[in-house]
Design goal:
Blueprint: H1 47-51, H2 55-61, E1 70-72, E2 85-89, E3 92-99, E4 102-108, E5 114-123, E6 128-135, E7 139-142, E8 145-148, E9 158-161, H3 183-186, E10 199-200, E11 205-206, H4 217-221, H5 225-231, E12 258-260, E13 267-269, H6 277-283, E14 289-291, E15 306-308, H7 329-332, H8 336-340, H9 369-372, H10 375-378, H11 389-393, E16 396-399, E17 403-406, H12 415-421, H13 426-430, H14 436-447, H15 458-465, H16 471-479, H17 485-495, H18 504-511, H19 516-525, H20 531-538, H21 547-556, H22 567-585, H23 591-603, H24 607-620, H25 625-637, H26 641-654, H27 659-671, H28 675-688, H29 693-705, H30 709-722, H31 727-739, H32 743-756
Antiparallel strand pairs: 1-5, 2-3, 3-4, 4-5, 5-6, 6-7, 6-8, 8-9, 10-11, 12-13, 14-15, 16-17
Helix pairs in contact: 12-14, 16-17, 16-18, 17-19, 18-19, 19-21, 21-22, 22-23, 23-24, 23-25, 24-25, 25-26, 25-27, 26-27, 27-28, 28-29, 29-30, 29-31, 30-31, 31-32
């Protein structure tokens, strides 16, 4: 089965198959160098024009992190020490220096030799500042040695490396000259306004423009030309009266107030929130997401342009707390505040980006102070960290070495889950010398019965991650409308192995859910379902109003023989398939997009386009293993097993510790009847990743098929310790023990299997 391309937006990290099954496309930008490059207007008029009428908002924006998101490098914008300052990281000494008005660094470049590079742009401002360097082909690379902009008293005013504990040689995928550190496709869109990537797939060059170098007014509000025409009553202004000439009106809080419930202690919104315009505008950048369109158009649904990450292992803990760098949105949509109608600007001033009130004040806008801002509630001394709403309900995690970011799921601390699942808890952030058991006991003494809070899915998602999940438990999350949509979608992403007559209704519910995140996840759960089921459930969603859903439907239906379809369905499938291909081509510089294209063409039986896309992915990123694995699988389908072996051996050389590659190579060698070598590879895959039960299962099946039943049975029994509820392992044990004559042993496992799957 092809491996879905995996792209984890944010701080670059090494590829881990199975962390996320996001279909991955990346909207990005290249660069025209030599100053602030203003693109053809397309209705963009610039922030200075906005200031004429919106002076207060403009003045608030000036000096904000949006205003300073990216700037040409000069004496006013560069914060780092370029006074011939040296910095050494794992034996490589870099020197930062100036030549007149130019800022330069001598550091290890392509090939690993020391070279001199000029800093062209600053990137960010606080608590750290990165620096961008121009490369051939319109590429801009982000240097991994960055300036700590914090005061010296806080440990700042120094150079440091983003990967301080790891040697990063020039051929490592995390080296600053590699694609993973490329400004064009990793960061550009969210640090400038109206980015146009202009990537040429034939020449593999970028030629980007922007309207403003930073995040300016029109990055959020959209092009202002029509709004200016309306404001100045220019010709045709009457036709713009309904929407004031704006592509998106961020007016969801107009005439809305929060009224304290007379009988309670928490305010309620005076009228329900009926749209997500403001939240989705912020989510464009403040989310871990995969772009899926060539260009964002203001006012359109978020999922017409991006697919937000789910609560995937490696990004979030099983209870939904932040793990990796996920940029707020995925946390916030889990929160009770989001369910109650809170928007970003209920807490943050949208232009200065500051909180609307200091300290606990922002929370006390809606939560009665005499109930919540008291020792009777938080059991800590006033003004201490334990008395801070954010420290307890929005604990921070530090990313990029010095940048603490608050978890916006706004949850009740659960040290009891730390005891049972190993998830973090806010109490231990301060009481690091105490155990989670101690914290759980304190919470029990203070509050009595555990309040599970709004997020009630930790145990279920953790079990699914460990391969010990229950289909009925996952289905229960999906059926419950109070489960946040992102958690329902995550449950759908885990339910495929557990689909049965008892749980398929949850899948159908997901396909008709009001949230497109849930509908798209439900389609992915159908990917390996029988053809008839995919056709019956998937075809209606080819006409879904949201792009990502149509694209997912196209993927699961790509392998259908179109000649057997009625003309109407052929047109629908062709249209959605065209949208899918266009999304990949919009991100043609990324190996993930090329791999997705290869998978799509391969499913359609398009031999040459599929091979070309896979090979392009490998050329773009020789370390990107899914391209090797999927191309080898396609060679298998074509009967070209020798080519598959050669390709997978190349992949092993790239990363000898990647279990999925050894697994694929082992299966290929089995088909070539090279059994001893095959068993070695399958055993290595199982050893390298014992948490993936499928690797051990396949290894055991191979052992049994080759007459090594006792070894196969022992392998499965060992695996069952890690995966006690894995029905595949249990079925295999029943079969192997029965065939070996151990009917009593087979019966014991059959009873265990029956209890899990009646």
């Amino acid at each position: 089965m092809p491996v879905r391309s995996t792209r984890l937006i944010g701080n670059a990290q090494r590829w881990k198959p199975g962390i996320s099954q996001l279909p991955t496309w990346l909207l990005c930008a290249g660069l025209l160098f030599g100053g602030d490059v203003f693109a053809a207007s397309d209705g963009y008029i610039g922030s200075e024009t906005c200031a004429d009428c919106h002076r207060e908002a403009y003045d608030g924006w000036q000096g904000s992190h949006h205003d300073l998101a990216m700037q040409p490098a000069n004496a006013d914008t560069v914060l780092g020490d370029f006074n011939k300052t040296e910095f050494t990281h794992f034996g490589v000494t870099s020197v930062f220096y100036r030549q007149g008005d130019r800022f330069l660094v001598s550091t290890d470049g392509i090939g690993g030799s020391l070279q001199d590079f000029e800093i062209i742009y600053t990137f960010g401002v606080y608590p750290l500042q990165q620096y961008l360097i121009e490369f051939p082909g319109g590429r801009m690379q982000a240097l991994s040695i960055v300036w700590d902009a914090r005061p010296q008293s806080e440990g700042g005013q120094r150079w440091f490396h983003l990967y301080p504990e790891e040697k990063i040689p020039h051929d490592d995928l995390l080296h600053w000259t590699q694609p993973s550190q490329n400004w064009n496709n990793m960061c550009a869109e969210c640090h400038s306004t109206r980015l146009q990537k202009n990537y040429d797939a034939k020449t593999r060059r970028f030629d980007t423009t922007w309207s403003e170098v930073n995040v300016a007014c029109e990055a959020c509000h959209g092009p202002g030309e029509d709004h200016q025409r309306w404001a100045q009553r220019e010709s045709g202004w009457e036709a713009l009266q309904d929407d004031l000439g704006l592509q998106v009106e961020l007016n969801e809080r107009r005439d809305v107030h929060w009224k304290m419930d007379v009988a309670g202690s928490i305010a309620r919104r005076s009228q329900p929130r009926t749209s997500n315009r403001e939240i989705e505008t912020c989510a464009r950048c403040h989310s871990r997401r995969s772009p899926i369109s060539p260009e964002y158009r203001h006012g359109e649904p978020l999922l017409d342009h991006y697919l937000p990450a789910l609560l995937s292992d490696g990004l979030y803990h099983a209870d939904g707390q932040i793990d990796d760098e996920v940029y707020v949105y995925g946390s916030f949509v889990q929160s009770k505040m989001h369910a109650a109608g809170v928007t970003c600007s209920d807490c943050h001033e949208p232009h200065s980006l500051e909180l609307l009130a200091p300290g606990n004040g922002v929370c006390l806008q809606c939560h009665k102070g005499d109930v919540y801002n008291t020792e009777a509630h938080h059991f800590h001394q006033p003004q201490s960290s334990g008395a801070s709403c954010a420290e307890c309900h929005m604990p921070a995690s530090t990313y990029m070495v010095v940048d603490p970011r608050h978890d916006h799921s706004m949850r009740i601390p659960r040290p009891d889950l730390s005891v049972s699942l190993g998830t973090p808890n806010a109490c231990s952030n301060c009481h690091s010398e105490q155990s989670a058991e101690w914290a759980a006991k304190q919470v029990d003494e203070w509050y009595g019965d555990i309040n599970p809070g709004h997020q009630k899915y930790a145990e279920i998602l953790q079990a699914a991650r460990l391969g010990t999940g229950s289909g009925e438990a996952l289905a229960g999350l999906i059926r419950n409308p109070e489960t946040p949509a992102i958690a329902r979608a995550t449950a759908l992403s885990e339910i495929a192995p557990y689909l049965s007559n008892q749980t398929v209704d949850a899948l159908v519910l997901g396909l008709t859910d009001s949230d497109p995140v849930v509908r798209s996840a439900a389609l992915r759960a159908l990917e390996n379902a029988p053809v008839q089921m995919r056709v019956q459930l998937g075809f209606p969603l080819l006409q879904d109003p949201v792009l990502i859903v149509r694209m997912e439907a196209a993927v699961i239906l790509a392998s259908l023989p179109v000649g057997d379809l009625p003309a109407t369905q052929r047109r629908q499938l062709a249209a959605a398939g065209k949208e899918y291909i266009e999304a990949q081509l919009a991100n043609a510089e990324r190996p993930e997009a090329q791999t997705n294209l290869g998978n799509f063409y391969a499913a359609q039986g398009e031999r040459l386009p599929a091979i070309d896309a896979y090979q392009t992915a490998i050329e773009l990123a020789p370390y990107y293993l899914p391209a090797y694995v999927n191309l080898a699988d396609f060679y298998r389908r074509l009967g070209q097993e020798d080519e598959a072996v050669e390709l997978l051996q190349r992949a092993v050389a790239v990363n000898p510790n990647e279990a999925s590659v050894h697994h694929a190579l082992g299966l290929t060698l089995v088909r070539l009847q090279r059994y001893d070598a095959a068993l070695d590879e399958l055993a290595l895959a199982a050893d390298l990743n014992p948490n993936d039960a499928s690797f051990t299962y396949v290894y055991a099946v191979a052992l049994n098929s080759l007459g090594k039943a006792p070894q196969a049975i022992q392998t499965l029994q060992n695996a069952l310790i890690l995966h006690p509820n894995n029905t595949e392992i249990l079925r295999a044990l029943v079969s192997f023990l029965r065939d070996s004559g151990d009917l009593a042993g087979a019966g014991r496992y059959a009873e265990q299997l029956r209890s899990l799957d009646p």
